[in-house]
Amino acid sequence: MLARIQVPSQARRGEVMTIRISIQHAMETGYRLDDFGRAYPKNVIHTLSCHYGGKEVFRAEMGSGIAANPYFEFYVLAEQSGDLRFEWQDDSGVRGAERAIVQVVT
Amino acid sequence: MNRRTFLSSGFCALPWCTPIAWAQTETKREQFMREVSGGAVVNPGRVIVDTPTLADNGHSIPVRITVESPMTPEDYVQRVTILAERNPRPIVASFMFSPASGRAEVMTRIRLADIQDVVAVAQLSNGTYWYGQTKVIVTELACLEEVR
Amino acid sequence: MSIGIWCAVTPWSSHSAESMPPISSVSPPASSTPLAPLGRSGITFASPDIRQLQADNFANPGMLWVTRGETIWRTPSGVKGQACASCHQDAQQSMQGVSARYPRLDTKRGTILNIEGQINRCRQEQQATTPWVYESVDLLAMTAYLNYQSRGMPIAVTIDTDNRTQWERGKAIFHRRQGQMNLACVHCHEQLVGRKLLTDTLSEGHGNAYPIYRLEWQTVGSLQRRLRSCFNGVRAAIPDYGAEELLALELYLGWRSSGLTVEAPGVRR
Hints:
The complex is a heterotrimer. By secondary structure, chain A is mainly β. Helices cover 0% and strands 55% of the residues of chain A. Chain A has strands at residues 3-6, 10-12, 16-23, 45-52, 55-62, 71-77, 82-90, 95-105. Chain B is mostly beta strands. Chain B has one domain: SoxY domain (Immunoglobulin-like). Chain B has helices at 3-11, 28-37, and strands at residues 42-44, 47-50, 61-67, 77-83, 91-96, 105-110, 116-124, 129-136. Chain B binds chain C through residues 52, 54, 56-57, 59-60, 62, 139-140, 147, and chain C through 46-47, 49-50, 53, 198-199, 215-218, 269.
């Protein structure tokens, strides 16, 4: 699953970092009908989580109420240099993952 | 039909004869808020729902939710839930926060199936619940209106 | 939407199409880039939220398709296992300004080539692989990626003696009444610009931001997808994707948007 993430490459310790993620996914509601009146099966990303410094710093549990090509902007306190790891999964079981490294200076 | 039959036919099934549901029916929104808070009182305030009053299109509406909180280990926001009571699935999303968030704020894009209030319920670490809302006018509806 | 069009331009409305000033006929000189009337891009009619979304290079959902296009550019394909990059190297250099010159005339075949047509031409003739279908995620991704390389550059569609006939054809289509609504493009997109069509504000109908992420479509779509919706809107027979009619119209629209810059990937409601 294609996704773009925006994480500052560098941050000061104690600074609040702005994290953004954009995922290419139709977020099929299950309400849309094809030309024969049959519903396209529901398939949405239901969970997105972000881990940093060994713990979960953000989690979104969502449904078809989130717009297609889900986009999130959230915040993480800069503590130590390391990975921000993103993981998400949709109803059909397909998983996505991305990571970025942030350099934290004191 | 004789008199006896008529009387026993259900003529006496008048309003004051039947058991009345004395409990007031709560609004759908109150019901969902109660679901989110597990029955606890949800206070108005502290939560700002920043979203346009007139949506371009119900399929994608930007929403930024901010909760007033120091976000310290002693006092922080644990969870924020977005409710849209007129959507077919009213609980839109739920976000988890912690002191590691630094700021109790999240921005995303949601779908709205009708003109309604977008409600955000915040759960604080001290066990209290707070909510904020903004009414959004939607002319092109998501989910329930087929767009080819 | 179609009822809205009808209400806007029926004879008993205060601005009937017949009472509007005559359509100015600007003909291109024999062989030089013509000066089309300077216009307003569709983004200037959009809400602040849409303008902000288009300008934000990260939040703009169309950029997901640009990113996909960037990956495809480097991916070997076809019998010869060649990627676009094999011939064209770094797209940021080689493709800069290219999309701004499309659609152009294919001198060998005498037909009009838009960007989608050029991409598929390369796929079939250079990479020896199958063409992509209109509105497929890969064709949209490649179109978005290529057009993005011309972002900010002026539209540079040239009309000369070679493509003049096609330009005339496109112009005729733009001015031709059609469909159950009996409306021409010019009625909404020149005579009634700025007025409301249900909840929308009528724009000048330029294609400089395409392919666009349209909120209504919940995905990226091509200019031809949008043109076909307009044919549908006036209840006219809808030309097939890739039809000569649509290509001639694209050529005319390209010339008509001279003075505007490429904005791909655009965002519209």
